[in-house]
DNA sequence: TTTACCTGTAACAATAACTATTACATGTAA
DNA sequence: TTACATGTAATAGTTATTGTTACAGGTAAA
């Protein structure tokens, strides 16, 4: 099991919009950099737009960031592209047997533990902004 | 996307083996409490056995814990049932375009961030033992 | 107003993982 | 030998993911 690459692609899209901010960042341009189909990009652009991360308009080529780089965290992207639902990173088996002491309590015991683990992961995502990502890409680019 | 319920079921199995330690915990007995097919349980028992968490023998009914409760963490179970591979909680799109400054660096930029998030989640799993789970189930059982 | 090109989106297919199930080989002990 | 357990291969249904074609609808320049 892995979390959908929509998340990584979403980050890629936003980062490239920033890098190409003087130019026109169309779905085809993005698709070429990501190496996927433009429709995949447009679907993701729709999600990013819906979450207020980018501005994009029918008929007009190019997407722009709708917020400051430092105001967009990886968690914002993660939520926007809908890869993991709240409290559902871990799935729990349905309807264990209520006649068993373990069966009737295990869900309530496990759930807060799973939630805590998920929140710890998400906390890391909240601590990283797109500005961090853009700067790191720029640094790697200049070094090499 | 959700992490397979094998993890939750694995915890259920180990917890029930402990609760039923005076009796015989067969795959059928476990399957009844979990509410699934005994073959599903036997596959999981195979994984838990392979990781040294339980003892179970062909032809002989019943599984036993192979370690102290306090010596088994949720992380041990998580690894045993193989729900998430190392460094693969988040998937990253393959082969972005090398002619693009973002395309050729995004993987190296994102990867350590994803790894850090995954490790934070796993750290929580390492901090909880089966003893904690068993005690919590017992407490809930006594309250109600 | 026609043309060219963009975004938005529905429909569909291939793939992979998950879960449940049947069937049966193999091991153990009464 | 019988009864019953674990171990495991094969298979099916379901769902999510990713990619693709097709086309509706918006915009702007010729």
UniProtKB/TrEMBL annotation, chains A, B:
Family annotation (InterPro entries): Tscrpt_reg_Rrf2 (IPR000944), WH-like_DNA-bd_sf (IPR036388), WH_DNA-bd_sf (IPR036390)
Top-level taxon: Bacteria
SUPFAM superfamilies linked? Winged helix' DNA-binding domain (SSF46785)
* Designated name of the protein: Rrf2 family transcriptional regulator
Q: Name one Pfam family in it.
A: Rrf2
């Amino acid at each position: 099991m892995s979390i959908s690459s929509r998340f990584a692609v979403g980050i890629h899209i936003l980062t490239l919009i920033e890098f190409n901010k003087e130019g026109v960042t169309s779905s085809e341009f993005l698709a070429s950099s990501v190496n996927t189909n433009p429709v995949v990009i447009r679907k993701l652009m729709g999600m990013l737009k819906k979450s207020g991360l980018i501005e994009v308009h029918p008929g007009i080529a190019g997407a722009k960031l709708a917020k400051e780089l430092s105001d967009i965290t990886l968690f914002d992207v993660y939520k926007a592209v809908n890869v993991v639902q709240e409290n559902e990173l871990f799935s729990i088996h349905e309807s264990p047997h209520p006649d068993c002491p373990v069966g009737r309590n295990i869900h309530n015991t496990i759930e807060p533990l799973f939630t805590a683990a998920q929140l710890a992961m998400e906390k890391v995502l909240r601590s990283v902004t797109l500005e961090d990502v853009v700067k790191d890409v720029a640094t790697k680019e200049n070094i090499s």
